[in-house]
TrEMBL record, chain A:
It comes from the Bacteria. One of its GO terms (cellular component) is cytosol. This is Ring-1,2-phenylacetyl-CoA epoxidase subunit PaaC. The lineage of its organism: Bacteria, Pseudomonadati, Pseudomonadota, Alphaproteobacteria, Rhodobacterales. It comes from Sulfitobacter delicatus. One of its GO terms (biological process) is phenylacetate catabolic process. InterPro entries: Aromatic_CoA_ox/epox, Ferritin-like, Ferritin-like_SF, PaaA_PaaC, PaaC. It holds the Pfam family PaaA_PaaC.
TrEMBL record, chain B:
Residues 143-180 form the PaaD zinc beta ribbon domain. It comes from Sulfitobacter delicatus. Residues 36-97 form the MIP18 family-like domain. It comes from the Bacteria. This is Ring-1,2-phenylacetyl-CoA epoxidase subunit PaaD.
Length: 252, 182
């Protein structure tokens, strides 16, 4: 795998969208109500569309004749660069929406900062994606508030989802040498610089949802560097990639 | 025993692309068509998912230009994952080839991103007549596209295509699509 930090960065953006998009698409046909089923499928569709843009550009930057499909379907777990949060299983509907909210709030901040990127292609993808993700965040924060401040049962489930997922939030704000290279080139923001705005937004939403943010800020990490994914990603890839693994390069 | 009535069903329509008017397709043009002519051709191509409006009504064709002998058409996607995008490119290519364009380049442009402000007034009127409430900066439909009542409520932020949301009229009780404003 290339060590070009720009390629790594683009894989991180693309893999976050791809893995979450696939996770959300697992709800298609089995969501609690028809409207939510359609909404989840639409969010998944946006994310897969964004994946296409990020990973296509990653492939061009790498220059090894790998297009978005090759990168999505012909890499194994250790080459994925998504944060651990997005590969966590769907759980119940509340857990899926909590994961979506915790990611959307970071995603929109990241994309908004990338609109000012020194790289014109990255800025264009960010500008396009930010419009879609604004809408995702509107829905996921509304749903977190609705369910958190809902019935006793829905409140209990949302608090359990928050407690389960909070340790995966920190990774999104921990920078490494790839991030440092992106900051130096004016391509992307320092991840830590997005934390204050995130905490404000998430804090306000959780308060409106009558949910309590866990006090411990311990953060699992290893997803975006590829050092140590959770066991869930490999299982997900067996589903997502089985056709290309069984019939390499098959096309419609 | 019921005897099936002969000729009770109309003959199947010819499959597009299989039986074609070969005389017109690909016929070499004596001279380059003007850009106005090309725009007029494009304005006759319906959106594949909402055929009531055309691609130019939707505002996704950003530019048409000649580069030497090549016609360059610049298109912007509505939503990054919209499955209609590839069909739209195919429809544009088929239509322009039918008009005799031989050298064609379809360019994708992401920035500035598509906005519903680029939808034409004609497009908005056609949407409403079709039963889809047109986009409004206020964030919701002006009224029910069926009975025009202003008592409307949102059912879901998403709908049958990425560009629409589901709403319902509280007077006539009909659900309807609202074209999201982005």
């Amino acid at each position: 795998m290339s060590t070009d930090p720009k390629f790594e960065f683009l894989c991180r953006m693309g893999d976050n969208a791809l893995v979450l998009g696939h996770r959300v698409s697992e709800w298609c046909g089995v969501a609690p109500v028809l409207e939510e089923d359609i909404a989840l499928a639409n969010v998944a569709l946006d994310l897969i569309g964004q994946t296409q843009l990020w990973l296509s550009l990653a492939g061009e930057v790498e220059g090894a004749e790998r297009d978005a499909d090759k990168l999505a379907f012909h890499r194994d777990v250790w080459d994925f660069r998504n944060v651990l949060l997005v590969e966590q299983p769907n759980g119940d509907f509340g857990q899926t929406m909590m994961r979506q909210f915790l990611f959307d709030a970071w995603h929109l901040a990241q994309l908004t900062a990338l609109i000012d990127s020194s790289d014109k292609e990255i800025a264009a993808i960010a500008e396009k994606s930010a419009k879609e993700v604004t809408y995702h965040l509107e829905r996921s924060s509304d749903t977190v508030i609705g369910l958190g401040d809902g019935t006793e049962e829905s409140h209990r489930r949302m608090q359990a989802a928050l407690d389960l997922l909070w340790p995966y939030v920190g990774e999104m704000f921990i920078g490494d040498e790839v991030d440092a290279a992106m900051v130096a080139a004016g391509i992307a923001p320092d991840p830590a610089s997005l934390r204050a705005g995130y905490d404000q937004l998430v804090g306000d939403t959780l308060a409106a949802a009558t949910l309590t943010k866990p006090e411990d800020d311990f953060a699992h990490k290893g997803g975006k560097s590829g050092a140590r994914h959770s066991e869930h990603l490999g299982h997900m890839l067996t589903q997502m990639q089985w056709l290309q693994r069984a019939y390499p390069d098959a096309t419609w | 025993m019921v005897k099936p009535a002969p000729h009770s069903r109309p003959a199947p329509a010819p499959v597009p692309g299989v039986v074609r008017d070969t005389a017109r397709r690909g016929a070499a043009l004596a001279e380059k068509p003007t850009l106005e002519t090309v725009w007029a051709w494009l304005s006759a191509i319906p959106d594949p998912e909402i055929p009531a409006i055309s691609l130019t009504d939707l505002g996704i064709i950003r530019d048409v230009a000649w580069q030497d002998e090549t016609l360059v058409v610049t298109i912007t996607p509505t939503y990054s994952g919209c499955p209609a995008t590839s069909i739209i490119n195919l429809d544009i290519e088929m239509a322009l080839r039918d008009h005799g364009i031989e050298k064609l380049d379809l360019k994708r442009q992401l920035s500035p991103p598509w906005t519903t402000e680029w939808m034409t007034d004609t497009g908005r009127a056609k949407l409403e007549a079709y039963g889809i409430a047109p986009p409004r900066p206020a964030g919701g439909p002006q009224h029910c596209p069926h009975c025009k009542s202003q008592a409307v409520e949102r059912i879901s932020q998403f709908g049958s295509t990425p560009c629409k949301a589901q709403w319902r009229c509280q007077d006539c009780l009909e659900p309807f699509d609202y074209f999201k404003c982005i």
